[in-house]
Amino acid sequence: MVPFESIWPQVAPLVAKAERPSRYINHEWGSVYKPEAGFRFCMVYPDTYELGQANQALRILVNAVNAHDGMVAERGFLPAPDMCDALRREGLPLFSIESCAPLGAFDVIGITLPHELAATNVLEALDLAGLPLHAVDRAEDDPLVVAGGPCALNPEPYAPFFDAINIGEGEESLPEGLEVIRTQRARGASRREIWRALAALDGWYVPSLYRWREADEAQEAGSWIEPLEEGLPTFIEKQVFRGFAESPAWEPCIVPFTEAVHDRLNVEILRGCARGCRFCQAGMMYRPVRERTADNIVASVLEGLAETGYDEVSLTSLSSTDHSQISEILTRLNRECAGKGVRISIPSQRLDSFGVDMAGLVAGQKKGGLTFAPEAGTQRLRDVINKNVTEDDLFGAIDAAFAAGWHRCKLYFMIGLPTETDDDIKGIARLVQQAYDHARAVVPPDQKGSIQISASCALFVPKAQTPFQWDGQIPPEEALRRVNLLRHSVKYRAITINWHDPKTSFVEAVMSRGGREAAALVEEAWRHGARFDAWTECFNEQAWRDAIDVLSFDVEAAAQTAYPTDYVLPWDHIGCGATTRWLARERALADEGITTPDCTFERCSGCGTCMRLGVDNQLAQPRVLGGARND
Amino acid sequence: MTDPRLFRLRATFVEEGRLAMLSHLEVAHTLERVVRRAKLPFAISQGFSPHMKIAFGAALPVGVGSTCEIFDLQLTEYVAPAKALAALQAASVPELMVQECHYIEHNATAASVAFPFSTYEVVFDRAIESIEAPETVTVVRKRKEKTLVVGEFLVKPFELEGNKAVFTLEAKPTGSLRPDLLLAHCVFDGEVVSITRVAQSEMC
Q1: Which of A87, B80, B98, B190 has the most CB atoms around its CB within 10 Å?
Q2: Which residue among B36, B48, B93 places its CB closest to the CB of A27?
Q3: Are A393 and A349 in contact (CB under 8 A)?
């Protein structure tokens, strides 16, 4: 067993020479140090400090574990590439932030899986920690390595690397799992016994206890996994933090020295979104919708600002303007923070709830750029994807925003959505140009030159546990053809079109839809040098190509094959609340262009989440269609 | 010249241990948050992008510690210095600790230019017999090479004592010589363990 002791004396000279030393030095305001705790957990974000420190899961889970007697949670981040190399050169392991202790000395390591392009970083972290990459190869006294987060909804591309995977919200579920590990360790249980004990717990999946079936066999059996022992669950349902709405919205946080992304006070005002966009995994994953009350939020924001010293607060959620009390919250906060140089922001604005009132309430003093996501260029396609916004919603929002003094607006679109045609692509150009015309009409004549409208296009990545999970991604060449069609369709030179590299989106699709065989691909790509795939300047296409050449795995099929909705998918043993039957029905409605209403405004759409999980939407007051009113 | 209706508080603080590795910008951000946490009645600039009226002393290179850093804060109300100090200390992390504060005239010279002479103490890993400074040091600024004549900046030569040395550099309006860079170009038998700014003064 690796001794639990600080390796700072050895690390310090490397930190001094590293790019941005402040990533590694600890001692930030709010960091918790519990050296006396007997059971140690290290929560790792598989990317650098600036990205990880901003991560909500990391903050929440470190707090949740630290709240337990005798347990400590420290933070760990993947060092930037220069520091990864320096550590390897000096033979030093990946270390935790608080104690600067080797990761191998912890009882449990938790790695969050935030997006599909972090997979090679997981391996980079495990390797730097000096741990065997595969759970089955780890020694009895090696730490248990667990995972969670959005990508756990299709855990198979990560399956061999983790001892256990936590599905759903971890506030209660993670400490429960850790408690089981602690108890089992205390009675001298073997690794395999600990696996069994975890597998018996709701929301915990232990991949090594299941055999992975061949495709034909899986279709026949109705599941890709076969338990290797008696008594193992064959379906693992996500866990929901039931106390969310009543819990304080002030989540104690660390104030970093270095400028992290989203470096501000983040207050989660509601969780879940039932708008039901058919491509959206988050919308399925965080159901039901749970609102914290205006009183809770306002008190929490004020407490958080006082405790941290931040001069900006963001009211976060998947769709903050949907909060039933958003006008009241903004009005009260604007009043409380007046004259203090505090900026109040909302990360995402829905087009149909951003009117003149909302523009006034979030205006504050600084007006940065606004971001809206129409997602598709024609009403037909917006109906297909169930993005229930209209052109009028967009133009109304543009009118309100530019009249209120904004000059920059970014519009998000997706390319390659199911049923998309060239008309839909040209529709994006038309819509953006019309938006520009609207902006010009309301901005004073002398400021027309400063109007900036841009369209950002992402390539559609089919996501597990969504109605579009059976759909394939279009090939990268076709994606580029459609991007070019869009660029040539835009006649206004003032409009900028940005797009993501389809090659990285292709890797995302493979990781999003692949089965357990995708894990071998990740491992091979990492061995060929892939890491930090989400960083444009680090994405190593050749490493992935080489990996594909070595393996017989058909990556195009994994990313691009469309299946009928009765096809058994590699993640069907994982449940996110919504039933497969409902997802299939939504997929059929998409083809017909029929939309499904949001159950927090209108009737229940029968997704099954509330029934299956024994939960309900929790609203602070009834929601009103058409968005917030400032009365 | 600042608004004469405002109270101008000058605070000194240390930057030690690991936090010597913070950049000037990181220290500035951190101190703004310290002031907010301390709930002092700080003044806010008017205009398009309102911000706290706080100004910092001359920048310290990354990796160089200090016992005598300065920031000036404008307050809308008088707070007794001892009270302000207690509030700032309660809101600070140990290695970036405010040590003292007092009021200065509204027209006092800004902290960044008021103290052009900085004295540094360098600790070596062993006792040093002699240290020889080069005549010139070439630096790259904005991709242009610039040759600095050491004698124009090194106003007090190295005073050696065992494993320590003390020297004073003058910051010029046209530029300054970084203490860590100077040491990297000096000839001596040993390794630098730490560099600390120990005094900032108006005169040599």
Answers
A1: B98
A2: B93
A3: no
Q: What are A's interface residues with B at a Cβ cutoff of 8 A?
A: 12, 15-16, 21-22, 25-29, 255, 257-259, 305-311, 339-341, 365-366
pLDDT band of B47, cuts 50, 70, 90: confident
* Helices A170-186/A56-66 angle, 10° precision: 50
Do residue B37 and residue A257 have CB atoms under 8 angstroms apart?
no
Q: Which of B26, B36, B44 sits opposite A258 (nearest CB)?
A: B26
Cβ-based neighbours of A623, under 8 Å, separated by 6 or more: A322, A324, A600, A601
Residues B43 and B75 in one domain: yes
ipTM score for this prediction: 0.92
The 10 Å Cβ neighbour count of residue A22 is 25
Distance separating the N- and C-terminal Cα atoms of chain B: 25
- Token readout for A485 is 């069609």
- What domains lie within chain A, and their CATH numbers? 8-167+170-237 (3.40.50.280), 265-514+570-613 (3.80.30.20)
The pLDDT value recorded for residue A369 is 78
Q: Is residue B1 part of a domain?
A: no
- B202 Cα to chain A: minimum distance (Å): 30
Looking at the fold, whether B104 and B142 belong to one and the same domain comes out as no
- The pLDDT > 90 percentage for chain B reads 83
Instruction: Write out residues in chain A with pLDDT < 50, as ranges.
Output: 628-631
CB contact under 8 A, B44 and A12: no
The per-residue pLDDT of chain B, averaged, comes to: 94
pLDDT for position B49 = 75
Residue B60 lies inside a defined structural domain of this protein: yes
Identity of the residue in A21, A258, A341 whose CB atom sits nearest the CB atom of B50: A341
Tell me what pLDDT residue A631 has: 37
Number of H helices, E strands in chain A: 22, 19
pLDDT at residue A358, as a whole number: 78
**Structural domain of B65:** 7-114
What is residue A629's predicted lDDT score, i.e. its pLDDT? 43
